[in-house]
Fold GMP synthase [glutamine-hydrolyzing].
Amino acid sequence: TWTSANIVEEQIALIREQVGDSRVISALSGGVDSAVSTALVQRAIGDRLTAVFVDHGLLREGEAEQVELDYVAATGVDLKVVDAREQFLGHLAGVTDPETKRKIIGREFIRVFEAAEAEVLATPGPPVKFLVQGTLYPDVVESGGGEGAATIKSHHNVGGLPEDLEFSLIEPLRALFKDEVREVGRQLGIPEAIVGRHPFPGPGLAIRIVGAVDADRLRILRAADAIVRQETTAAGLDSSIWQFPVVLLADVHSVGVQGDGRTYGHPVVLRPVSSEDAMTADWTRLPYELLERISTRITNEVREVNRVVLDVTSKPPGTIEWE
Ligand code: XMP
């Protein structure tokens, strides 16, 4: 029978068997999946795990700090932080195609991990042979890993990996859906603030900027997204929303009037969705009062944004993310 305790026990045994005497590097992103998979592997092999957090500069406001402080405080995991913000922005410059963005980000992730591996290898100990990935069952299916499934998007943690990958993968969540992952996380004692976090894509805000990614566009999207999260939390609605992407239409301008004058700014799209497993989703019927507060605050506080629009498309036909 399925219980989170059984899953933890079973996975710990499997991880120990797979890893043997080797050391392991984990990809910690700040999301639920990598937090839980990392905690599972740590539980199995202790200090032979080094968690690497790549700050790719594509996270939301405050998230890098949450990984570096809160998660470490909660788990005591051995964390190596790599500041790769310049590197990612440089490679993404001018790139607008969503799949190309994903492939670049997946490729740079692996490069950074290889560099981190070299540093870990320079310390005495067994060889580093494995990389932890927080791949879930829906990721496997959507990337064509399931029987007869077509490739819809090459999620960087499954389909976008480069062919010269040096690590074998440990994917302890591969058979699980999100709600099951949260249960496993609770079983492992990870704080609710992390376990209850909404899913966030590995490529981060890069796939929520429709158009090329640069530091200024990231700043604008981060500011709008932070307002959405503050107001949603204040309204007590976090746990009734599966995910709430905020999308910046960076190449679209529209005319507005803000303050004393005419503006020619960007729209942001609100994409709140309700879902069980991200494979299908419905747009969330948010209270008008919340939408009004979000709209007023964004257009007042983020001067580059003069229009806030609501995405009322279910999945299918729309995917949750815009890219
Ligand atoms: P879509 O947009 O396909 O998203 O409906 C389904 C779920 O997957 C997340 N997502 C990603 N996660 N790498 C990830 O790790 C990716 O490239 C990626 N693309 C989408 C998305 O946020 C949603 O939860």
Observations:
- The chain has ten helices and twelve strands.
- The chain has a mean pLDDT of 89.
- Residues 4-195 form a domain with the Rossmann fold fold (CATH 3.40.50.620).
- The longest strand covers residues 261-270.
